[in-house]
Amino acid sequence: MTSFTAQTEFAAQFLEAAAARPGKVLLATDFDGTLAPIVPNPDDSRLLPAAAEALARLGPVLGSIAIVTGRGVATVRELGRLEGRTGLERLVVLGQYGAERWDAATGEETPHEVPTSVAAARPEVEALLAEARFVGVRLEDKGRALGVHTRPAPDPAASYEALRGPLEAIAERHGLVLEPGRSVLELRASALTKGDALRELVTETGASAVVMCGDDLGDLPAFDVLDELRAEGLATCAVVAASTEQPVLAERADVLCAGPEGVAAWLAELARAVAPRLH
After folding, report:
1. In this predicted model, what pLDDT tens digit does every residue of 7-58 receive, in sequence order?
2. Exposure check for the chain: N or C terminus, fewer CB within 10 A?
3. What is d(CA 257, CA 254) in angstroms, rounded to the nearest whole number?
């Protein structure tokens, strides 16, 4: 596969709509695995320079740009070095699937919070991960959620499957949602999805053309919303960063990309379409 490939006619239709009315475009995108390469330690995640450059070009031209992520907003702000980035002065970050928000324009951010359900579940998760069979598995405290990362384990896939059942039982005991992802199982206090977050952004911005970029199972509800918006007459486009871990995502792609590098290349293509005079 080249860096990105249009899979459906909706890819070209979206670019045409965006070029005609860039101020009515909403660009929403995941962070890890989409704008930033997946790395063994989540704390080492960084915004791909090519993606940052493309977003900086798009920021002054598009109606809205939002990062919609399962991470907390404070973490994404830090890892992406988003504050003060030229071109992204109007960026919005929705963290924890929309439970948290940061607006670059105002600096307003949802206060950090640890729900009692997450606090009560944490000792049980720590005790589970202390078992010898889960050596290398890493716990990430997201405030409103707990992320259990199996990528650092000697056998990530085996650890992932062995953890699903026990973590589901812990989640059920504490009224949490268990969210599966790429080598990560997340226990969340909020039942919000990225589909909910995207719907809210569309309502807020009044966008007539909407694109969502993603790479993991948590992005599927947002892709479902794209289908609904398309039926309502909006121009929409699903951009997928392909991975061997989640091949099902490729089936939903209007544009299929070779990882974050391919997403960055497509974002640059979008920038050329909406602002050719700048290139």
Report:
1. 999 999 999 999 999 999 999 999 999 999 988 887 788 999 999 999 999 9
2. C
3. 10
Q: Which two tokens stand for residue 31?
A: 């962070």
What are the CA-CA distances from residue 191 to residues 122, 196, 218 (Å)?
A: 18, 10, 12
Provide the 8-state DSSP code for 254.
S
Do 275 and 22 form a contact (C-beta atoms < 8 A)? Answer: yes
What are the DSSP calls for 30-70, one per residue?
-SBTTTB---SSGGG----HHHHHHHHHHTTTSSEEEEE-S
Look up tokens 């997201």; give the residue. 142
| Alpha helices for the chain (secondary structure H) | 9-20, 49-58, 73-79, 116-129, 156-173, 194-205, 220-231, 259-274
**Residues 53, 45, 101: CA angle, nearest 5 degrees:** 75
pLDDT given for residue 244 in this prediction: 82
CA torsion 194-196-202-208 (nearest 10°) is: 70
Task: Identify the pLDDT of residue 199.
Answer: 97
Which pair of structure tokens corresponds to residue 90? Answer: 């109007």
* Identity of the residue numbered 185: L
| CA separation, residue 82 to residues 69, 152, 181, 192 (Å) | 14, 27, 24, 24
Amino acid at 228: E
Q: Let me know: does 207 contact 64? Beta carbons within 8 Å.
A: yes
Q: At 277, is the pLDDT very low, low, confident or very high (cuts 50, 70, 90)?
A: very low
Fill in the amino acid letter for 153: A
pLDDT, tens only, 208-224: 999 999 999 999 999 99
